[in-house]
Specification:
Elements (H helix, E strand, L loop, with lengths): L1 H8 L7 E4 L7 H11 L5 E5 L7 H7 L3 E4 L4 H13 L1
Length: 87
């Protein structure tokens, strides 16, 4: 929730958001929906260690630009960020 509060105050200051799927108070999917509702063009990457919870197509349908499976290498993170920013 703190991340969303910070984003809500100045959404134009963010170039990209990377969030985990599983967090204490809010899921990454719910956070992504809230972020995209506030600013539809914000690139969001969802990181998860649970590949059976959400797939690339479902993430894309939600407006999430990238799904990063943990553990991710620096190269995979770099590729996900580049791809999300290109779209």
């Amino acid at each position: 929730m703190e991340a969303f509060e910070l984003f809500s105050k100045t959404p134009e200051e963010f170039d990209l958001v990377i969030t985990d799927l599983t967090m204490p108070q809010i899921s990454g999917v719910v956070l992504a929906k809230k972020l995209l509702n506030t600013r539809p063009d914000i690139p969001v990457i969802l990181s998860t260690g649970y590949s059976n919870v959400i797939d690339d197509q479902e993430a894309k349908n939600l407006g999430i630009r990238g799904l990063l499976l943990k553990p991710a290498s620096i190269r995979e993170l770099d590729a996900a960020i580049r791809k999300a920013l290109e779209n």
